[in-house]
Amino acid sequence: EYDPDDAGIYPVPTTGIVNFKTPASHTGKSAILLYNSSGEFIERKEILNNQTDLSGYKPGIYFFKLFGQNEGFIAGGKLIKK
After folding, report:
1. What is the pLDDT of residue 3?
2. Chain centroid to CA 48: how far?
């Protein structure tokens, strides 16, 4: 079992690359589901090397849900794109 406080993202705000901190018990692939500030689903993005590139997104507030292949839901939160 992992502690959700062991998961997170940085830097916030971001201009492009977002890094994901996952619990030590996390194994396998990860993906995020991105939502706009209205809560509308935008895209599912695979996480490679604990990071993803959001440089193609417009500045604003986004919400995410981080999922692990083996764990299911890991964490969720808000990120700000400059």
Report:
1. 52
2. 11
